[in-house]
Amino acid sequence: MEKQDQWASKLGFILATAGSAIGLGAIWKFPYVAGTGGGGAFLLLFLIFTFLLGYPLLVGEFTIGRHAQSDAIRTYKKLAPHTWWHVTGRIGVLVSFLVLSFYSVVGGWILLYLIQALSGNLSGFSQAEYGTLFSDIIANPAQTIIAQFAFILLTILVVAKGIQQGIEKVSKIMMPILFILFILLVVRSLMLPGAGEGVRFLFVPDFSKLTSQTILYALGQAFFTLTLGVSVMVTYSSYLPKTQNIPKSALSITLLNTFITLLAGLAIFPGAFTFNIQPTAGPPLIFVVLPAVFENVPFGSVVFIAFLLLLLFAALTSAFSMIEIIVATVIKDQDQKRAKMTWLIGIAIFIVGIPSCLSYGVLADFKMFDKTIFDLVDFITSNVLMPIGALLISLFISIKVKRSTLMAELQEGSNIKQGFFNVWFFLLRFVTPIAIILVLLDSLGVFNRFK
C-alpha cells in the first residue's frame, strides 16, 4: 500500500478546503435566504451559529480525519471497529455522488452562459427576455448535457492529478482569482445609486422580521455553508500532516467562508435595491436578474463575465471535494488507481445526472412527490441526508471517540488548553446535535403542522 498523498502546504490546504465550502450555495443561496429572512437580523444569527455551532463541528471533522489518516468510510471503521458507525461515511459518499450529479448541471449552465457572454450574445435584453433566454437554454437537451459533461470533465482532469498536483495546485490559482473578482464586483456594486440601501438591508438588523423560520434557516445555512455532514472535511483533513494546527486552520476556513458570504451579499443587494429587484428572487437571480442589472451599468458585460468566472471557480472547487471523497474511498490509498477511478466515477456521476439535466426540458412533466427529478435529488440530499450525516458525525465524535484521543490529536501542532477543549466538546456533544435535529425536522416540514 502506498503512502497517502498529503497537502504540500498549510496555505494549499486552507484554500482547497475553503474552496470546497465556498460553492454556489454561499454565493447565490445566502443572498436569497438572507433576503427572505430580513437581511441584517438573518446575517447576525448566521454569524453566531457559524462560529458557535459550525466551527466546532468543522474542528471535529478535521480531528478524526487527521487521526485516522484514511478515507471517509474507513475512518469510522478504524475509530469504531465492528460497529455500524461506518454508515456515517457511506452516507457522505452517497450524498457527494448525488449532489455532484445535479450540481454539475448548474455548473453546465454557468459554462453555457459564459460562452454566450464571451461571444457577445448576452446583452441588449430586458429582464423578461433574459427569463425567456434562461428557460430556452436549460430546456435544450443537447447543449445542457454537453455542458454538464464539460463541467464534469474539468473536475475529472484536476482530481485525477492527485492532491498536490491537482486539487491543491489548481485551488492556489482559482481561489485568489475568485477573491480578486469578488472584491472588484463589490467595489462596482457599492458605486451604484442604491448601494446605501442595500448595505443597510444587509448589516442593520431588523428584529421585527425575525421568525422561527428565519432562525432555522440561519441554523441550516451555518452548517451547510461549511460543507459539514458529508465527511468531505474528514477526507480533506486525512491528508494533513501532524504539524498542522487544526483549531487555527478551521478558524481560517470559517473566517474565509464568512468573508465570501458577506461579499456575496455586498455584490448582490446594492444592485437589487438600485434596480428595484426583490432580494428574495432566489435561484433565478443569477441567470435572469443579474444580467439585467449588469445591462444597466457601465462595462456591465465585462463585469458579468467576471461574475460568471467567479461562479465557475466556486462551483469547480466544491466539485473537486465532492468527487475526491468518492475517489479516496474507492482507491484506499493506492494512488496508482487514482486516474482510472476518477474517470470511471466521474462518468458514472455524469450518467446519473442526465435525468436531472433533462428536468427542465423533455422530463419537465415527470414528477415524483410533486417534484422534478432535479428538485427531488436536491431535497433528499440537502434536506434529509446532509442533516442526518451532520448529526451522526457530531454524535460519533463526542460519544464514540475517547476524549483523550481527541485532546491528543488537537494538541498535535497546537498548544490548546483544557478550557478550549471543554467548551468545544460541550458544544459538539450537547448543543450542535440539538441544533441539527431542529434543522432536520424543519427540513421535513414537521413544524408546519403546528402553524
UniProtKB/TrEMBL annotation:
GO cellular component: membrane
Superkingdom field: Bacteria
UniProt membrane topology term: Multi-pass membrane protein
Residue spans crossing the bilayer: 7-28, 40-59, 91-115, 145-163, 175-195, 215-239, 251-277, 297-330, 342-364, 376-399, 420-441
Gene3D superfamilies named in the record: Amino acid/polyamine transporter I
Keyword DNA-binding in record: no
InterPro entries: Na/ntran_symport (IPR000175), SNS_sf (IPR037272), YocR/YhdH-like (IPR047218)
Cell compartments where the protein resides: Membrane
Principal cellular location given in the protein's record: membrane
Keyword set, alphabetical order: Membrane, Transmembrane, Transmembrane helix, Transport
Pfam families, alphabetized: SNF (PF00209)
Full protein name: Sodium-dependent transporter
